[in-house]
């Protein structure tokens, strides 16, 4: 089962979609407008890490074999999953992965995403989501997980 959340957030000034993850104020990465962190985003970093932890226990990897993106939060669940999988596969420092991923963004988006990704990694490491795991469901063997990964 994949986890989905139906939360969206837009800048009050330029209507850009972004996660207001910084407490108490996040600057819009598009126009710089300071926005108060909305109530429902106060735990957003933790929520993204928990979704990733659940998906990894279920599927053996952070990215579910199929995942529909229905909201801004879903988008960032999938985005962080891809980056976490890359991190485990490539065995390089997280700083290298983060800089590669944000390389093509504008400077203010780079700053925004870099901070968000460092927070995600930090919370994820504390939560132990990068430790070796065994897949929970008895029906899902390791072979199946590999086949799914190749099919993407
Ligand atoms: Zn804006």
Question: What topology emerges from the helices and strands here?
Answer:
Layout: E1 25-27, E2 34-36, H1 44-59, H2 72-90, H3 94-102, H4 107-127, H5 142-150
Antiparallel strand pairs: 1-2
Helix pairs in contact: 1-2, 1-4, 3-4
Bound molecules: zinc ion.
In short:
With 152 residues, this protein is mainly alpha-helical. It has one domain (25-131).
Q: Major β-sheet, in short?
A: 2 strands, antiparallel
Q: Give the N-to-C terminal Cα separation.
A: 18 Å
The string of secondary-structure elements, in order, is EEHHHHH
Write down how many β-strands occur, each being a DSSP E stretch of 2 or more residues: 2
Structural class: mainly alpha
The number of helical elements comes to 5
Strand content: under 5%
- Low-confidence segments, given as residue ranges, are 140-152
Q: Helix amount, in percent?
A: 40-55%
The whole-angstrom Rg is 16 Å
Characterization of this structure:
It is built from five helices and two strands. By secondary structure, the protein is mainly alpha-helical. The protein has one domain (25-131). It has a two-stranded antiparallel sheet. A hairpin with a 6-residue loop joins strand 1 (25-27) and strand 2. The longest helix is centred in the C-terminal third of the chain and has 21 residues, at 107-127. The radius of gyration is 16 Å and the shape is globular. The two termini are 18 Å apart. Mean pLDDT is 88; it is low at 140-152. It binds zinc ion. The site of zinc ion has 8 residues, from loops.
């Amino acid at each position: 089962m994949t986890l989905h959340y139906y939360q969206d957030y837009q800048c009050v000034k330029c209507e850009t979609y972004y996660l207001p993850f910084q407490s108490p104020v996040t600057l819009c990465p598009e126009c710089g407008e300071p926005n108060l962190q909305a109530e429902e985003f106060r735990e957003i970093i933790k929520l993204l890490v928990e979704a990733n932890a659940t998906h990894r226990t279920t599927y053996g990897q952070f990215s579910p074999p199929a995942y529909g993106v229905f909201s801004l939060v879903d988008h960032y669940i999938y985005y962080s999953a891809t980056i976490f999988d890359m991190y485990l596969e490539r065995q390089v420092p997280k700083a290298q992965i983060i800089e590669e991923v944000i390389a093509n963004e504008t400077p203010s988006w780079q700053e925004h995403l870099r901070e968000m990704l460092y927070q995600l990694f930090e919370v994820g490491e504390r939560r132990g989501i990068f430790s070796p795991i065994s897949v929970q469901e008895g029906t899902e063997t390791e072979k199946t997980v590999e086949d799914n990964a190749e099919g993407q």
